[in-house]
Design a protein that fits this description.
Largest sheet: none
Low-confidence stretches: 1-5
Order of helices and strands: HHHHHH
Number of strands: 0
Strand content: under 5%
Helix content: over 70%
Shape: elongated
Number of domains: 1
Bound molecules: fe (ii) ion
Mean pLDDT: 87
Structural class: mainly alpha
Length: about 150
């Protein structure tokens, strides 16, 4: 089923661009949380709004991945990648749930220093899980691409 008509570089480029954009959004939330001045209701509200935007972006990104937008071609030609890709896709609901829980905790009206610090810790945990997830995706697509080019021979 191998074919010379490769769109992997485009898919890989698209995936990497999407992941870069998500990374920048996560960086923005991280720098907001790194500001440890006594938090105000306004700063909590802004943080929450930023995380809700990130959440919506993630939901759309995950949906696109689940519909086969990124890995479909690699998998079609390299069926051995399918189990790894499927396992990665199965992480999406837990990632969204983790972010939802963080946003939910920000909605309780607690604007203490401790609530802010906790949001920072929660976000770092989420961010680490999310980064590992995206690295796995990049690796699957990259592996398929390298193998196509014979780089793994
Ligand atoms: Fe994903
Ligand atoms: Fe992704």
């Amino acid at each position: 089923m191998a074919s010379i008509n490769r769109s992997d570089p485009i898919i890989l480029g698209h995936l990497l661009a999407e992941h870069r954009e998500l990374f920048l959004r996560m960086q923005a939330a991280r720098s907001t949380l790194a500001d440890l001045r006594p938090p105000t209701a306004r700063r909590f509200a802004d943080l929450r709004a930023g995380l809700e935007e990130l959440r919506e972006h993630l939901r759309a990104h995950f949906a696109q991945e689940e519909q086969g937008g990124f890995m479909e071609e690699s998998i079609a030609r390299m069926p051995r990648l399918a189990p790894a890709a499927a396992a990665i896709m199965r992480q999406h609901p837990a990632l969204l749930a983790e972010l939802d829980a963080l946003i939910e905790r920000l909605s309780g009206g607690d604007i203490s220093d401790e609530a802010w610090a906790r949001a920072g810790r929660d976000f770092e945990h989420f961010s680490a899980t999310m980064s590992a997830h995206e690295r796995s995706e990049n690796a699957v697509v990259q592996e398929g691409y390298n193998e196509d080019l014979g780089l793994l021979d």
